[in-house]
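re: the backbone from monday

yeah here it is again, tokenized this time
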């Protein structure tokens, strides 16, 4: 049969085929032990005539039936699939753009190992939670940049995530407005026929310079986009490491301290019916945003329709054949006794 009509077995279960060897070994040892006992009551010359059930082919036939039945059961567990039908599968979910702050302030170590590394770990954890949703990745500092467009290929998003660092965007600063506007445009292009199922997750310390994120958030809401914000950092603040060494200082030589600005992040989330959480160890904050707020309160939309093969399970054939062999093995002894009678 053509390979296109046969699906590969689940090879993990084929390791249990060694049970066939085990069963064969048990039968062989049983044969040797039984033969040794019976030889005590007969001589070698008359042994075949007195005990045909042992010396004849019937014993090995019964053993072969059991061993073969074990092999068939193992193949049934491996779920052989032969033949298929084409089915149209409509995928529903939420379009999510994750915007991560890559400005110099995200190198502060008030969150270990740094704000940026914590943000990247959060994104990686979130990708593990996604359930069929499309996700895009956006990096921003003084300007925004779409790192990965909307996709269901989460492995590709993780690959792009590895390249995120402050050197990615040479323009300094933190422009939340640019990030929101760019994400709004990306989400609108991803699902132009629907305003449902659109969400933006911003991971930042909230230190915005010379922009109007609140106004951008209002425009995002008009397009049906909910914004969820995750604050990274401590309100007490921390110095900003310089690439060349030491810490960043202002023009007067004073140490620059970067602090988490929760107020603007809360306001952005509130305007769009989203949620704000402060980053904590583990993934409790992500659970709150994704499962409770985003998936629970955001309307899903249909964004993809694909044809998939629905394979026909054929394990029943092997189970039936194994049962048939065991029945033949079981009744063969009674049949022989009935024939003698």
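seq for it, each position gets an aa:
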């Amino acid at each position: 049969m053509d390979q296109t009509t046969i699906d590969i077995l689940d090879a993990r279960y084929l390791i249990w085929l060694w049970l066939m060897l085990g069963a064969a070994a048990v039968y062989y040892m049983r044969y040797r032990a039984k033969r040794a006992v019976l030889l005590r009551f007969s001589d070698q010359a008359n042994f075949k005539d007195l005990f045909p059930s042992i010396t004849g082919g019937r014993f090995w036939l019964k053993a072969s039936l059991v061993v073969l039945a074990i092999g068939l059961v193992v193949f049934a567990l491996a779920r052989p699939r032969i033949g298929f039908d084409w089915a149209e599968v409509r995928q529903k979910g939420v379009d999510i753009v994750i915007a991560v702050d890559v400005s110099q302030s995200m190198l502060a170590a008030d969150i270990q190992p740094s704000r940026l590394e914590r943000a990247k770990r959060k994104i990686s954890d979130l990708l593990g939670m996604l359930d069929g949703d499309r996700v895009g990745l956006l990096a921003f500092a003084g300007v925004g940049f779409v790192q990965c467009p909307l996709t269901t290929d989460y492995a590709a998003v993780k690959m792009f995530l590895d390249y995120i660092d402050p050197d990615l965007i040479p323009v300094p600063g933190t422009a939340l407005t640019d990030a929101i506007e760019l994400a709004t445009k990306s989400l609108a292009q991803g699902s132009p026929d629907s305003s449902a199922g659109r969400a933006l997750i911003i991971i930042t310390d909230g230190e915005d310079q010379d922009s109007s994120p609140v106004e951008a958030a209002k425009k995002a809401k008009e397009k049906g986009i909910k914004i969820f914000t995750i604050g990274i950092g401590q309100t007490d603040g921390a110095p900003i490491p310089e690439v060349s060494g030491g810490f960043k200082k202002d023009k007067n030589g004073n140490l620059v301290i970067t602090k988490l600005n929760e107020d603007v992040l809360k306001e952005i989330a509130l305007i769009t019916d989203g949620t704000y959480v402060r980053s904590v160890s583990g993934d409790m904050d992500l659970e709150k945003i994704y499962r409770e707020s985003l998936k629970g309160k955001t309307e899903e939309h249909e964004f993809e329709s694909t044809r998939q093969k629905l394979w026909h399970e054929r394990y029943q054939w092997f189970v039936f054949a194994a049962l048939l062999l065991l029945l033949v093995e079981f009744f063969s002894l009674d049949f022989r006794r009935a024939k003698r009678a």
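The radius of gyration is 34 Å. The chain is about 45% helix and 20% strand.
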